[in-house]
Amino acid sequence: MAKSKDKTLKIDIGIGKDERKAIAEGLSRLLADEYTLYLKTHNFHWNVTGPMFNTLHLMFETHYTEAALAVDLVAERIRALGFPAPGTYQQYAALSSIEETEGVPEAMAMVRLLVKGHEACARTARSVFPVAEAAHDEPSCDLLTQRLQLHEKTAWMLRSLLE
């Protein structure tokens, strides 16, 4: 009797399954934070008002456009590690460290909330880095470094608006 052929090919990239799983779980938390921040930024783009309307409206658009590309990169890295990427609001709500914002805050409150969101993403990325580094997962380390640089710079720039 012929054996049925397994149509899946085992992942053999030099990182064990347990390490890949731990990295993917961390990246899933980052994906949830990134997506939650994307949604918050897009919401603020639509709803900002006041004397800085044009500046903030355009800045928020730049931020959410970058975030839309970032969520794809994070999700694709999770998939490359061999695990499903979370993709529902329910999953993101359970995994994200960023709280939703009720109502429509005033413009400078939006800026403060976005500073906190970018700092939360930085903390999450930083928490995953040692796991990826220990597994010699350079692509994930590179992705995390890029996300850290972006979130720390954006938090600084937004914080500068509050001074």
TrEMBL record:
<dbReference type="InterPro" id="IPR002177">
    <property type="entry name" value="DPS_DNA-bd"/>
</dbReference>
<comment type="similarity">
    <text>Belongs to the Dps family.</text>
</comment>
<dbReference type="GO" id="GO:0016722">
    <property type="term" value="F:oxidoreductase activity, acting on metal ions"/>
</dbReference>
<protein>
    <submittedName>
        <fullName>Starvation-inducible DNA-binding protein</fullName>
    </submittedName>
</protein>
<dbReference type="InterPro" id="IPR008331">
    <property type="entry name" value="Ferritin_DPS_dom"/>
</dbReference>
<dbReference type="InterPro" id="IPR009078">
    <property type="entry name" value="Ferritin-like_SF"/>
</dbReference>
<feature type="domain" description="Ferritin/DPS">
    <location>
        <begin position="25"/>
        <end position="163"/>
    </location>
</feature>
<keyword id="KW-0238">DNA-binding</keyword>
<dbReference type="Pfam" id="PF00210">
    <property type="entry name" value="Ferritin"/>
</dbReference>
<dbReference type="InterPro" id="IPR012347">
    <property type="entry name" value="Ferritin-like"/>
</dbReference>
<dbReference type="GO" id="GO:0008199">
    <property type="term" value="F:ferric iron binding"/>
</dbReference>
<dbReference type="GO" id="GO:0003677">
    <property type="term" value="F:DNA binding"/>
</dbReference>
<dbReference type="InterPro" id="IPR023188">
    <property type="entry name" value="DPS_DNA-bd_CS"/>
</dbReference>
